[in-house]
Specification:
29% helix, pyruvate-formate lyase- activating enzyme, 468 residues, 3 domains, 13 strands, Rossmann fold, Pdz3 Domain, alpha/beta, 13 helices
Length: 468
Amino acid sequence: MKTLFDPGSFSGRKKRALRCSRDWEPPAVEEVREGSPLQGAVIPGDRILELNGSRPRDVIDFLAAATERRIRLLLQRGGRIKRVRIRKEEGLPLGLTFSQPVFDGVMTCRNHCLFCFVDRLPPGLRPGLYVKDDDYRLSFLFGNFVTLNNLEREDIRRIVNLRLSPLYVSLHSTEAALRSRLMGGNGERGLEAMKILAEAGIKLHLQVVVCPGYNDDQALEGTISGALAAFRPVSLALVPVGLAHAEGEKRLRLPGREDALKVLRLVKAYREKSVEETGEGVVQASDEFYLLAGEEIPPAEEYDGYPQLENGVGMVRKFLDELDEERKRLKERAYCLPGTCLLTGRAFAPVMVEALEGVPGASPEVIAPVNRLFGESVTVAALLSGEDVVAGIRESGSRPERVLLTDSLLYDGRFLDGKTIQEVEMEAGAQLLPLPARGEALIRALAGIPWEHEEDGHPSWQGGRGIS
């Protein structure tokens, strides 16, 4: 079944700062798109008070209105109240964009997960990082993972009636008591919601954060088999817990190599079984498990179209394949501009070094800063702060003129600790050139060739200064 998703209805990006209050605020129209049936009747800046007699809760209400022939709006323009009535073709989108996806505030998390990243953030970071969203609407619109533990019956009915599919759900365990232990309660409620949604035909992408000593080994095997039987997920990704901590009986440790090897053996066995029974692999391990185990990254066909790419499942394989394809296309043009270094996380640095060995002329130093913000055990690039980047460049010993780094470190030009690109450049004494985490972007940057792909809001590499 088709969903109602029209990405033009929300102009923001997935990581935009979000309100977390549940107080409703009439949405302000940011843009009336060309071809909208409301052109001339609605203008940017209008606030929508009612849509077909009801307060709109989110952009999904406007998406659903595409199925209507008659549209009634009550809107506020300055100090005036205005009524708009139109007749339109059924299925024609309203063509309005808004700066926020939800108008009654984000549904926040009621859980107290042992491994909660937000709970362990140090003070002084960007304010938006402290919002603990658990909103099914953001899951549908942007692929945010939610627990479904906070759903009311009305929410479930709405998901089913509007076919808000797929949803991205944190499973962690199919055993209610263990799921509740990991989440601090309410685990059974989310499992019941998943069962209802799966039976109603809502597609689910599931993730399990593997915590050694809690939901690994036999418990993990039970979760995988239980999920495949009960929820028929589109994908089931296993990812390692990211932060260790010690709090009495709630002590968590990071997985080691042997833990990773056990996970990969389970993934292999269940993928083979799933392919034999259904023709689809479904079960996948995140890249971190392969890097931790020292195992080769699987070929692209084993990632089933990369359904959980932003969850770190297949990013390395996709990057390497893109890099290799662009290298072959450009042949001898992939030289490295003098004074250029690459900056990435410590986990990915060895992969980067090996990958660049086959690129003609590309021999830049790879800088892999220690994560001082969260601790040395955190090795992914996206969790490096501006201070970490400065220290890494200063300690590299090469004094680079320019540093290529993934734009996943940044939001609106700022790092996790709020430092701007310009501030880090001044402190590090080097020019920063953020790039999308794609192999072809890196090869082109090394060769000084403009990168013009702007999908998902990524900036363009323009050579010279680097960012337009």
